[in-house]
Specification:
Distance between the termini: 12 Å
Order of helices and strands: HHHHHHHH
Strand content: under 5%
Structural class: mainly alpha
Number of strands: 0
Largest sheet: none
Number of helices: 8
Helix content: over 70%
């Protein structure tokens, strides 16, 4: 079985999938806000903790828009990082799910404590489940499982 090559095209497609996945997460977080009102999303928590002076000058709607744009850029970067993984890892069907959950756990266990974001210690279980599912969605989209790359699935096709 020949390994699909990692090319600029495949890496950039993964980056675009990361952007689209982050946008999809925005929709799922709208639902999450209805389930667990009062919770702040990780991007909101980071912006509030790390750049309050900069963002306090913006009105609420602009602050929310800029926060989402930052999240989308971060999501695109995560997609690019996924695209840089070796193809033999990316080709496994569960890799995207693991990648998405790893992204979330990296925030919860690493980034949040490092930035002093205390809210992660006090989250409700339902919020954690919704955010975990949100990141599963991210990983599935980033991995291209909804629209697989021909190079990855070519090796699985019957000959």
């Amino acid at each position: 079985m020949s390994e699909p090559k990692r090319t600029w095209s495949s890496i950039s497609r993964a980056g675009v999938r990361g952007l689209v996945a982050a946008m999809a997460m925005t929709g799922s977080r709208t639902v999450a806000a209805g389930i667990a009102p009062g919770e702040r999303t990780p991007p909101e928590a980071i912006v509030e903790k790390q750049a309050p002076a900069l963002f306090s000058r913006l009105d609420k709607h602009h602050r929310k828009a800029v926060t989402e744009l930052l999240h989308w850029v971060y999501g695109a970067g995560g997609g690019v990082a996924f695209g840089l993984l070796p193809a033999r890892i990316r080709q496994f069907p569960g890799t995207g799910v693991v990648y998405g959950l790893t992204f979330w756990l990296g925030f919860e266990m690493g980034v949040a404590p490092m930035l002093g974001i205390e809210q992660v210690k006090h989250r409700k279980v339902v919020w954690r489940v919704v955010i975990a599912l949100d990141h599963v969605l991210y990983g599935v989209v980033v991995a291209g499982r909804l629209a697989p790359e021909p190079a990855i699935d070519a090796d699985r096709a019957p000959r």
